[in-house]
User: Fold this.
Amino acid sequence: MTTYNVAISLGKNVSPLTRAQLATNYTAKASSNEGLASSQGNKEFDNPSLLISNVGKSYQLHETSLNVLNGINLEIKPGEFLSIVGASGCGKSTLLRLIAGLDTSYSGSIDYQGKPITGTDLSRGIVFQEHRLFPWLTVEENIALAFSATNIAKEERKLRVEKQISIVGLNGFEKAYPHQISGGMSQRVAIARALVLKPKLLLLDEPFGALDALTRLKLQQELQRLWEHEGLTTILVTHDVEEAVFLADRIVVMESHPGRIKRIVPVPLARPRDRSSALFQRIKADVMADFAMVEVE
Assistant:
C-alpha cells in the first residue's frame, strides 16, 4: 500500500468542501477559465490523440488468471498532460506499457492517432523510474543511443543531441559519464534520450520516484517547461498526488483488484501553478481522500 507523507494545510480562511462542492467548483472554474490548463502551444484539443476502449489485461499465475486491468476507457487529447495516480498494484505501469506497445496481449483496443497500437513506435517515447543509462557511455552518447534503430543522418543526430542537451540544461556535461553526474541530471539525460527522436506522445513511469525531494521539485518544474516547449501529449504515472496536481490537466484516479478507473479529476489551474493556493490544496486533498489519507467532510 502506498503512503503519502504530505501535510495538508488549507489555511484559516479556507472552509472544508464536500466532494459535491469540489466537483462543482472544478466545473465552474474550468468553464470560466477555459484554456488555462493548456500551454499557448497546445490549443488543438478537438480530436483524440489516444483512444483507449474497454481495455483489460490478465496474467496467468500458476493455474490462476490474475486480472490486472478491467474496463479501461480513456480519451486523451493532443497536447494534453494527463497524470495517473493509484495505489501500488492497481495497474498504472501496466497500462503505460500497453500504450507504449511493449505488451500487445490485452483485450479491448488502444488507438493512437487513429491507428491501433500493435507494437513500439518512435512517435511514442517512454521514460522509466530508473534512468537506465549505460555507464560506459557519456551523456551525449547515451542520448544518441536512441538513434540506433533509425536511418537518421549522422549530422542530424549530432544537431538533435546538442539541442536536447541544451533544452534539459546539461550544457558542459556532454562528455561526462553517469557516475560523474547526479541522479537528477541522469534522469534529465533519460528524458533527453526520449525526446531526441521527436515523439508526439511522452510516457513517464514514476520518473522522479527515486530522487530526493528538492531534486524532484526542480525536475517537476523542468518537466512542465519541457511540455510547454515541445507541445507533447504527456502521460505521467505517479504515486505523488501533489506532483499530479502540479503538472496535469486531468488526473486519472485508479483503484485496484482489478485495476480500473475510479474517476477523473480536472485541474483547472493556470500555469505556473502555486502549490500553496487554496484551490490547489483542495484538489490535492480531494484526490488524496480516495486513498483514505485525508477526509473531505
About this structure: The domain at 28-114+199-297 is CATH 3.40.50.300 (Rossmann fold).
